[in-house]
Amino acid sequence: MSQPIENQKQQVNFTLNGREVGGSAEPRKLLSDFLRQEMALTGVHVSCEHGICGCCTVRIDGKAVRACLTLAVQVDGRRVDTVESLAHAGELSDLQKAFRKHHGLQCGYCTPGILMSVEAFLEISPKPNEEEIRDMLGGHICRCTGYTGMVRAIKEVVEQRNEPVPLIEV
Ligand code: FES
Ligand code: FES
Protein backbone atom coordinates (compact mmCIF):
# COMPACT_ATOMS: atom_id res chain seq x y z
CA MET A 1 0.00 0.00 0.00
CA SER A 2 1.41 3.44 -0.89
CA GLN A 3 2.26 5.90 1.89
CA PRO A 4 0.07 8.97 2.46
CA ILE A 5 1.67 11.99 0.78
CA GLU A 6 2.45 13.65 4.15
CA ASN A 7 4.65 10.68 5.09
CA GLN A 8 6.59 10.95 1.86
CA LYS A 9 7.89 14.43 2.66
CA GLN A 10 11.64 14.82 2.90
CA GLN A 11 13.68 17.35 4.82
CA VAL A 12 15.49 19.90 2.65
CA ASN A 13 18.19 22.05 4.26
CA PHE A 14 19.93 24.63 2.14
CA THR A 15 21.30 28.16 1.97
CA LEU A 16 18.71 30.54 0.58
CA ASN A 17 19.79 34.07 -0.27
CA GLY A 18 22.60 33.77 2.27
CA ARG A 19 20.55 32.28 5.13
CA GLU A 20 20.47 28.68 6.32
CA VAL A 21 16.89 27.45 5.92
CA GLY A 22 15.03 24.18 6.10
CA GLY A 23 11.70 22.81 5.02
CA SER A 24 10.02 19.64 3.94
CA ALA A 25 8.90 18.74 0.46
CA GLU A 26 7.28 15.83 -1.30
CA PRO A 27 9.73 14.15 -3.67
CA ARG A 28 7.87 15.49 -6.72
CA LYS A 29 7.57 19.08 -5.51
CA LEU A 30 9.07 21.53 -7.99
CA LEU A 31 11.64 23.97 -6.65
CA SER A 32 9.66 26.86 -8.17
CA ASP A 33 6.54 25.90 -6.20
CA PHE A 34 8.56 25.19 -3.07
CA LEU A 35 10.24 28.60 -3.13
CA ARG A 36 6.96 30.40 -3.74
CA GLN A 37 4.70 28.42 -1.43
CA GLU A 38 6.96 27.27 1.42
CA MET A 39 9.61 30.03 1.40
CA ALA A 40 7.25 32.89 0.37
CA LEU A 41 9.66 34.05 -2.34
CA THR A 42 7.13 35.15 -4.90
CA GLY A 43 9.78 36.85 -6.99
CA VAL A 44 10.27 33.39 -8.49
CA HIS A 45 7.78 33.62 -11.33
CA VAL A 46 6.20 30.63 -13.02
CA SER A 47 4.82 30.62 -16.52
CA CYS A 48 5.40 27.73 -18.93
CA GLU A 49 6.63 25.16 -16.36
CA HIS A 50 8.44 23.46 -19.23
CA GLY A 51 11.85 25.11 -19.13
CA ILE A 52 11.10 27.32 -22.13
CA CYS A 53 10.35 30.86 -20.92
CA GLY A 54 13.02 31.33 -18.23
CA CYS A 55 10.69 33.21 -15.82
CA CYS A 56 11.51 30.86 -12.97
CA THR A 57 15.31 31.08 -13.24
CA VAL A 58 17.22 31.06 -9.95
CA ARG A 59 20.88 30.39 -9.18
CA ILE A 60 21.96 27.11 -7.65
CA ASP A 61 25.57 27.16 -6.49
CA GLY A 62 25.99 30.16 -8.77
CA LYS A 63 24.61 28.58 -11.94
CA ALA A 64 21.41 29.84 -13.58
CA VAL A 65 18.86 27.03 -13.37
CA ARG A 66 15.18 26.68 -14.29
CA ALA A 67 13.41 26.17 -10.97
CA CYS A 68 10.46 24.58 -12.79
CA LEU A 69 12.72 21.78 -14.01
CA THR A 70 14.31 21.19 -10.61
CA LEU A 71 12.91 19.28 -7.69
CA ALA A 72 12.99 20.92 -4.28
CA VAL A 73 14.76 17.89 -2.78
CA GLN A 74 17.63 18.39 -5.23
CA VAL A 75 18.76 21.58 -3.49
CA ASP A 76 19.44 19.88 -0.18
CA GLY A 77 22.88 21.05 0.99
CA ARG A 78 23.23 23.58 -1.81
CA ARG A 79 23.11 27.35 -2.21
CA VAL A 80 20.08 28.91 -3.86
CA ASP A 81 19.77 32.56 -4.77
CA THR A 82 16.62 34.23 -6.05
CA VAL A 83 15.89 37.72 -7.28
CA GLU A 84 15.21 38.71 -3.67
CA SER A 85 18.96 38.46 -3.05
CA LEU A 86 19.85 41.32 -5.39
CA ALA A 87 18.70 44.42 -3.50
CA HIS A 88 20.37 45.29 -0.19
CA ALA A 89 18.90 47.39 2.60
CA GLY A 90 16.14 48.53 0.29
CA GLU A 91 18.53 49.63 -2.45
CA LEU A 92 18.29 48.06 -5.86
CA SER A 93 21.42 46.49 -7.35
CA ASP A 94 23.26 48.17 -10.20
CA LEU A 95 21.66 45.75 -12.65
CA GLN A 96 18.16 46.40 -11.36
CA LYS A 97 18.74 50.15 -11.54
CA ALA A 98 20.01 49.86 -15.09
CA PHE A 99 16.95 47.83 -16.13
CA ARG A 100 14.73 50.52 -14.67
CA LYS A 101 16.71 53.35 -16.30
CA HIS A 102 16.73 51.76 -19.76
CA HIS A 103 13.15 50.44 -19.68
CA GLY A 104 14.32 46.83 -19.64
CA LEU A 105 10.97 45.81 -18.20
CA GLN A 106 7.32 46.59 -18.65
CA CYS A 107 5.00 44.12 -16.91
CA GLY A 108 8.07 42.66 -15.17
CA TYR A 109 6.92 39.07 -15.28
CA CYS A 110 10.03 37.83 -17.07
CA THR A 111 12.38 40.15 -15.18
CA PRO A 112 13.39 38.16 -12.06
CA GLY A 113 14.53 35.20 -14.12
CA ILE A 114 16.38 37.40 -16.58
CA LEU A 115 18.20 39.28 -13.82
CA MET A 116 19.38 36.01 -12.28
CA SER A 117 20.57 34.72 -15.65
CA VAL A 118 22.39 37.97 -16.36
CA GLU A 119 24.21 37.85 -13.01
CA ALA A 120 25.33 34.26 -13.61
CA PHE A 121 26.34 35.12 -17.18
CA LEU A 122 28.41 38.17 -16.15
CA GLU A 123 30.32 36.10 -13.65
CA ILE A 124 31.42 33.76 -16.43
CA SER A 125 31.69 36.47 -19.13
CA PRO A 126 32.47 39.79 -17.43
CA LYS A 127 33.08 41.60 -20.74
CA PRO A 128 30.56 40.23 -23.23
CA ASN A 129 29.94 41.92 -26.58
CA GLU A 130 26.45 42.78 -27.77
CA GLU A 131 26.08 39.58 -29.76
CA GLU A 132 26.91 37.50 -26.69
CA ILE A 133 24.44 39.50 -24.59
CA ARG A 134 21.70 38.96 -27.16
CA ASP A 135 22.56 35.29 -27.40
CA MET A 136 22.22 34.94 -23.61
CA LEU A 137 18.88 36.76 -23.61
CA GLY A 138 17.69 34.28 -26.23
CA GLY A 139 17.16 31.87 -23.35
CA HIS A 140 14.32 34.04 -22.02
CA ILE A 141 10.94 34.98 -23.41
CA CYS A 142 9.72 38.55 -22.88
CA ARG A 143 6.43 39.45 -24.49
CA CYS A 144 6.65 43.19 -23.73
CA THR A 145 9.95 44.94 -24.20
CA GLY A 146 11.51 43.91 -27.47
CA TYR A 147 14.74 43.32 -25.48
CA THR A 148 16.48 46.51 -26.65
CA GLY A 149 16.30 48.19 -23.25
CA MET A 150 17.66 45.08 -21.58
CA VAL A 151 20.64 45.02 -23.93
CA ARG A 152 21.36 48.68 -23.18
CA ALA A 153 21.07 48.07 -19.45
CA ILE A 154 23.41 45.10 -19.50
CA LYS A 155 25.96 46.95 -21.64
CA GLU A 156 25.94 49.84 -19.17
CA VAL A 157 26.48 47.52 -16.21
CA VAL A 158 29.31 45.78 -18.06
CA GLU A 159 30.99 49.15 -18.61
CA GLN A 160 30.49 50.22 -15.00
CA ARG A 161 31.77 46.96 -13.55
CA ASN A 162 34.85 47.04 -15.75
CA GLU A 163 35.81 50.62 -15.05
CA PRO A 164 39.32 50.80 -13.62
CA VAL A 165 39.36 51.52 -9.90
CA PRO A 166 40.96 54.98 -9.42
CA LEU A 167 44.24 54.97 -7.51
CA ILE A 168 44.11 56.77 -4.17
CA GLU A 169 47.18 58.87 -3.50
CA VAL A 170 48.59 58.52 0.01
S1 FES B 1 8.31 28.59 -15.83
FE1 FES B 1 10.25 27.68 -15.80
S2 FES B 1 11.07 28.02 -17.76
FE2 FES B 1 9.02 28.78 -17.89
S1 FES C 1 8.46 42.73 -19.22
FE1 FES C 1 6.57 41.73 -19.59
S2 FES C 1 7.16 39.73 -20.18
FE2 FES C 1 9.00 40.82 -20.09
Describe the structure.
With 170 residues, the chain is of the alpha+beta class. It has two domains: 81 residues, Beta-grasp domain (Ubiquitin-like (UB roll)), CATH 3.10.20.30; 68 residues, Orthogonal Bundle (DNA polymerase, domain 1), CATH 1.10.150.120. Helices cover 31% and strands 15% of the residues. It has five helices and five strands, in the order ββαβββαααα. The protein is globular. The model has no long low-confidence stretch (mean pLDDT 95). The site of one FE2/S2 (inorganic) cluster has 11 residues, from loops.
Helix/strand layout:
Layout: E1 10-16, E2 19-25, H1 31-38, E3 57-60, E4 63-66, E5 79-81, H2 94-101, H3 111-124, H4 130-137, H5 148-161
Helix pairs in contact: 2-5
The chain binds FE2/S2 (inorganic) cluster (FES) (2 copies).
One FE2/S2 (inorganic) cluster (FES) binds near residues 108, 110, 142 and 143.
Care to give the gist of this entry?
With 170 residues, this protein is α+β, with helices and mostly antiparallel strands.
Structural class: alpha+beta
Order of strands, widest sheet: 2-1-5-3-4
Architecture of the largest domain in CATH?
A: Roll
As a percent range, the share of helical residues equals 25-40%
Q: Specify the number of helices.
A: 5
- Please name the CATH topology of the largest domain: Ubiquitin-like (UB roll)
- How would you describe the shape? globular
Determine and state the CATH class of the largest domain: Alpha Beta
N-to-C span? 76 Å
CATH superfamily of the largest domain: Beta-grasp domain
Oligomeric composition of the shown chains? single chain
Radius of gyration: 18 Å
Bound molecules: FE2/S2 (inorganic) cluster
State the total count of DSSP E strands. 5
How many domain modules? Answer: 2
DSSP strand content: 5-15%
Low-confidence stretches: none
